[in-house]
């Protein structure tokens, strides 16, 4: 097992400690979330009673294969806890997510939860967001026009870099909802909240991968074990 895999397993096991019998859980998408699903599946097979909502078809398939009961968000209603990974995490627990192409459903499920906990290894911690290209889910109709507007808005918010559609095996990558993903190599984002607000004003933008003021805690695995980070208190 590689060191990265070991860190994912450690943080997944730590997140499992937050799960109580009878909970309704949101399951994230990506390799670290997959480690949590594997750990959760082992507990379910031992008798843990939970109901889960998946954020992607890949997550749903893994969960069902592990014996985890899956419900729709419509039937489950408010969730107790969502556990998901992130591509970048800053000191305020603002996130960039969407590397796995499921950012819209991840954001919907996180917002439907009483508690949203991020799990990651320490390589995902950053002083400022933006080194990881920002994913933005866009409507296929007029996508190139939307990409141009994203670039314009980015520059107005102090960001500049290539904005391009993510490629899949047979053309543009498609999300589970049938949308495209634009990956934006903006570099350092001076004001993530401002950029997020501006992006939502573009009609062709379905959702962006900036998760601001959403995470209640982050479990971070490193050489010295797993530590818990919480948003800094406002003064």
Structure characterization notes:
It catalyses: aldehydo-D-ribose 5-phosphate = D-ribulose 5-phosphate. GO terms for molecular function: ribose-5-phosphate isomerase activity. Belongs to the ribose 5-phosphate isomerase family. This is Ribose-5-phosphate isomerase A. Strand 14 and strand 15 form a beta hairpin. This protein is α/β, with parallel strands linked by helices. The longest helix has 15 residues, at 31-45. It has 2 domains: 3-124 and 213-222, Rossmann fold, CATH 3.40.50.1360; 134-208, ACT domain (Alpha-Beta Plaits), CATH 3.30.70.260. Helices cover 31% and strands 24% of the residues. It has 7 helices and 15 strands. Helix 1 (3-16) packs across helix 2. It has helices at 3-16, 31-45, 57-65, 73-76, 103-111, 143-156, 192-199; strands at 24-27, 51-54, 81-84, 88-89, 95-96, 116-121, 134-138, 163-165, 167-168, 171-172, 180-184, 205-208, 210-211, 217-222, 225-229.
């Amino acid at each position: 097992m590689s060191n990265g895999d070991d860190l994912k397993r450690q943080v997944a096991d730590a997140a499992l400690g937050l799960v109580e019998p009878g909970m309704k859980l949101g399951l994230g998408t990506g390799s670290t979330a997959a480690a949590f699903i594997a750990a959760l599946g082992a507990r379910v097979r031992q008798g843990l009673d939970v109901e889960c909502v998946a954020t992607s078809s890949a997550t749903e398939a893994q969960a069902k294969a592990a014996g985890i009961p899956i419900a729709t968000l419509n039937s489950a209603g408010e969730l107790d806890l969502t556990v998901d990974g992130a591509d970048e995490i800053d000191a305020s627990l603002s996130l960039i997510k969407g590397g796995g192409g499921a950012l819209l459903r991840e954001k919907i499920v996180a917002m439907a939860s009483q508690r949203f906990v991020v799990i990651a290894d320490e390589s995902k911690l950053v002083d400022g967001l933006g080194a990881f290209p920002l994913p933005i889910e866009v409507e296929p109709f007029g996508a190139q026009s939307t990409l141009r507007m994203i670039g314009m808005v980015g520059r107005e918010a102090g960001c500049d870099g290539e904005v391009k559609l993510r490629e899949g095996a047979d053309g543009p990558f498609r999300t589970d909802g049938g949308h495209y993903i634009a990956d934006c190599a903006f570099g350092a984002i001076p004001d993530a909240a401002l950029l997020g607000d501006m992006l939502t004003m573009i009609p062709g933008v379905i959702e962006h991968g900036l998760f601001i003021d959403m995470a209640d805690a982050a479990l971070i695995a490193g050489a010295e074990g797993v530590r818990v980070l919480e948003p800094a208190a406002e003064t």
